[in-house]
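CORE FACILITY INTAKE
Project code: CF-77B
Contact: R.S. (postdoc)
Sample description: multi-component assembly, four entities in total
Requested service: structural model of the whole complex
Turnaround: standard
Below are the sequence entries exactly as provided by the requester. Do not edit them.
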Amino acid sequence: MMRDVLNIGVIGYGYWGPNLVRNFAELTDARVHTVADLNPKALETVARRYPATKVTTDAMDLIRDPEIDAVAIATPVATHFSLAMAALKAGKHVWLEKPMTETSMQARALIDEAEKRGLTLHIDHTFVYTGPVKKMRELVRAGDLGKVLYFDSMRVNLGLFQRDVNVIADLAVHDFSILDYVFGQHPTAVSAAGINHYPGTPENLAYITLFYDSGFIAHVNVSWLAPVKLRSILIGGTEKMITFDELQPSEKLKIYDKGVSMTTDPAKIHDMRVGYRTGDMWAPKVDNSEALLVESRHFVDCIRSGAKPISDGEFGFRMVELIEAATASMRGRGETIHLPSNHNKTK
Amino acid sequence: MMRDVLNIGVIGYGYWGPNLVRNFAELTDARVHTVADLNPKALETVARRYPATKVTTDAMDLIRDPEIDAVAIATPVATHFSLAMAALKAGKHVWLEKPMTETSMQARALIDEAEKRGLTLHIDHTFVYTGPVKKMRELVRAGDLGKVLYFDSMRVNLGLFQRDVNVIADLAVHDFSILDYVFGQHPTAVSAAGINHYPGTPENLAYITLFYDSGFIAHVNVSWLAPVKLRSILIGGTEKMITFDELQPSEKLKIYDKGVSMTTDPAKIHDMRVGYRTGDMWAPKVDNSEALLVESRHFVDCIRSGAKPISDGEFGFRMVELIEAATASMRGRGETIHLPSNHNKTK
Amino acid sequence: MMRDVLNIGVIGYGYWGPNLVRNFAELTDARVHTVADLNPKALETVARRYPATKVTTDAMDLIRDPEIDAVAIATPVATHFSLAMAALKAGKHVWLEKPMTETSMQARALIDEAEKRGLTLHIDHTFVYTGPVKKMRELVRAGDLGKVLYFDSMRVNLGLFQRDVNVIADLAVHDFSILDYVFGQHPTAVSAAGINHYPGTPENLAYITLFYDSGFIAHVNVSWLAPVKLRSILIGGTEKMITFDELQPSEKLKIYDKGVSMTTDPAKIHDMRVGYRTGDMWAPKVDNSEALLVESRHFVDCIRSGAKPISDGEFGFRMVELIEAATASMRGRGETIHLPSNHNKTK
Amino acid sequence: MMRDVLNIGVIGYGYWGPNLVRNFAELTDARVHTVADLNPKALETVARRYPATKVTTDAMDLIRDPEIDAVAIATPVATHFSLAMAALKAGKHVWLEKPMTETSMQARALIDEAEKRGLTLHIDHTFVYTGPVKKMRELVRAGDLGKVLYFDSMRVNLGLFQRDVNVIADLAVHDFSILDYVFGQHPTAVSAAGINHYPGTPENLAYITLFYDSGFIAHVNVSWLAPVKLRSILIGGTEKMITFDELQPSEKLKIYDKGVSMTTDPAKIHDMRVGYRTGDMWAPKVDNSEALLVESRHFVDCIRSGAKPISDGEFGFRMVELIEAATASMRGRGETIHLPSNHNKTK
């Protein structure tokens, strides 16, 4: 029997955990019951901000607490598998930060465990819950762009260097999630180049190209070592094209009535001339709700209804698989890696 | 004996030729003697704008004219080799549009011919004559950036689709020339991905990664199929970083006192923590002279003094070699191509 | 009887004159017959660029030349009246740079003279021949904005300080011309503030407010002393709003489906609440032709057909009248100046 | 005797109140003891977010509570005077939202009451606690700009229409506070124009010019009816100029080494020519701390030390006086209003 107000335990109150706690606290049918963190300073901050929330330095206390219904895990990726598996085995629904796990094998094991127990397994790929990404999906799925030709993303800034994941797992994964959600295609091959400029640290910049059987091509440029923050995506179709700049205060998403057409006029055929079409630009109004609040709502709704989250375990698995392939290619100086085609189909 | 006012013949009055004619016309010790073009309409425009300039539809007339000292060639690349070779054999100094030739073997033959006859061979890589690129070179060469880590360029827009060269030869060549001039290093390997979305046309987008022995890495993203025009370069060094956006009306070049430093503090070593340094930004005043006028002046000066142009035949050769390697890699879906190291050294 | 190719004489080859000559030279049914300038250096440049054009240091030679049909005057404003009057008396059609004259009385005398002789009198208010301004007029006249509420322009940069006109006559006049052409209303009062920071020079910054009987209000902020160049206009209507930034490389004109509506719901009346409507943004494709070429074409067409130019003498007169009123208010520290209502009606 | 942890009562949990509560909650030596609001819904939100904070719908309960040391008032301006006076009479220190009061007479009465009782009276002019404004003050006060010539601000957006204050009191007051803090001069006259487009509402756009005896001039353009949000300030000096755009994610503040110099060369005197100087641009690193947290800290420090806040009652009084004068001028269609010179001197 489901509680009227779900009790959520949050493990990890570092960089992202405070955002989870703040958003879960805005829900009316869920609340943050306990926060666990190894750092007592972090727990003092929790206590000052949320005097009614319990705190602990022992994540297992939280996982074992029978009052807790769901566990949100916002810890370094190396701990994702063991904490999530323990939570599932304790019968808790799980919210897991991206990337889901260090390996695709671990991801598969979590999916199976959640499946077996009928528990909700939600991976926090926040981008697919943003207004502009939802609008892009609508436009692409409605065929407004014509045949889609390419996706090109630049996602760079100075820091934060991670010590446990490379820049692909940290930043490119956002583009992988947008690609999966918006286009519903899965790449068949990947080629990547990248470098770690500081010995002993993960790769801090990478250029990844994804090849698709449909002729679509995607490129992702990520870096922790850029002097300016850039978050810009170009999408090209035969009928329309899109730019998305999430750093703009307004008009983040723009749709261009621009394109190229091949001349079929026999008189001009020896020119092999391409024609350009340049029309209006249109910036649709998009939902500006905080994505994490939308996603928190979705998580609790899925727990209550038993529906699969949009970013479920399979979604998270595909992301880990892409990170693995891109990283392998990067370490092979761009060697093309072919992706398995027998994974669960993209939605 | 050199004439007081050099007579220049210009072959090709299509897209770029009018700019050559307009800039040569501003020099006081050179003038445009004849313009050749296959298209009589183009020659009518020349006649209206420059009533004192001769026109012809036969390029060989121009090349053979004993009154002409130098020939500027702004025709499709397929004709570069034969026209330039004919001009050199007729004893003319040559200004040749980029890319120099279709193959590096042709480029080598032109270099040898010019060398043998003591003629100036100038390849029009206009970017190296712009104020911001000169300033970048000064900063890099003076060591202001510290050790240089990466170069990252995005050069995209809608059109113009070329029918005789792919987007690498059309656009990426600009970045290759900036890399050569600013950093004075030559890549040892290249990996590229790209696609032609319209059958029968050259590749219209490409992503190229250049690897250097020093650990430096360069990435170039070019496209004829983007809804917006972008011309932006990021350069990262251990001490300072640069952004260059040639489309800005002012402050095109910005230098950031930003960087990353590895902690060597033993107490923090288990953190493997990276420190960030964020300081001021500085936009130096740069020379805004029209690059093509500076370059025209340089060409005539080199003819008079016998000095090698900055963008001489060897420079042009290295560019063709890179275009060949990047195109080969692209057609091999990113296969790494190793570059010969025995070419003439970069300046 | 009209010549097949009209002969135009241009007086003044300083800042703007070269643009006039370059554009007249592109017309097929007109040509630049003679250029006059007091500066022999300027005439040398003309001779180098246009060997077939005659040059003279004596403007009266040009004005008296029976081969010349029309005279374009691009000299300091203090000479506009006498040169234009001489040209009209010599039976020439006249193109006169803005501002038309130093005083509205002089402007009226030129209008009368041109009228009497059946000659075309064209004032060069270039902005009304640009694509974006034409599009704004279309939108406003079609009622797409609803009731228009305000116009707000910022037009500032560093220099060029003029010595013969203040910043209102130099820069604000562009906004006055756009206001007249787009809205077809004439202000009934004007209030201005401004200052000359350098003794002995004209006012170098000014803030002008124009009041209209319809409730519409316009504000113009002009300066020669700003560190950056800004050219931005906001227009507000009850249904839609416009931004125009002429410095953008594309999407200069944007139309916002945004507005405000007063609640008429009696239940909310004690709140006196205002509702906001935020919809899509739309950037229409606009004609990017060089305005001066369009205007040159229009001038020659008007000479041939006898039609009144869009920016005819009456248009120029209204502009001079506004400059006079705004300058008078500025010198009275913002004192409101009421404008005569009996001038020729705005189109 | 001062409590170790000060107890603050906050009146008003509407638009701004939540920000006050959130920032006071981050202090370690103060806490939010009680929140009062007429709206029970608002109090429910407080209870959910801050379970340890008391709530009440009766502001007088809060004011009379002997456990409370300081009262922060974030209510409509019409209630400022009576609530603040009641709080001072109850012996509480007071934090009062801007504008301080409806009239300068009310402001003076509050200053006198606080003075008499030795209580801290702090007016929330948040801008003077931001990093960029502090940096501007440093630059101006150090003489880096040379003689300051002008200040020009544009502060417009769509909404929020206020029903109790006009756009001058809502938005221009921010510029008045920046002018006072940065330049330390008080204007001697003000001229304003403005309009209310919706009957029964306060003026929704206004253009205000402030005149200073030193020759400095300031202009402020504010509107609730603009399609885009703009927050941009230009400052000109004889040596350097500044731009400040608070909406930029970085490089909000830029300093231009640009200026104008009058020729004193006798040979050029008949030209009356002005020379332009264009040098580098420099964007200093500025403190990005949340201003409201800095200001909260300052308020508590002033209570503890007895020091006057930067934005004390006198500061707030000068702001109200300017709002009154500008509003009077606006209602007189730009009539110049002279300001009293016998007010307490600007710091």
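Facility notes:
- The two ends of chain B are 31 Å apart (CA to CA).
- Residues 13 and 56 of chain B are 11 Å apart (CA to CA).
Invoice: internal transfer
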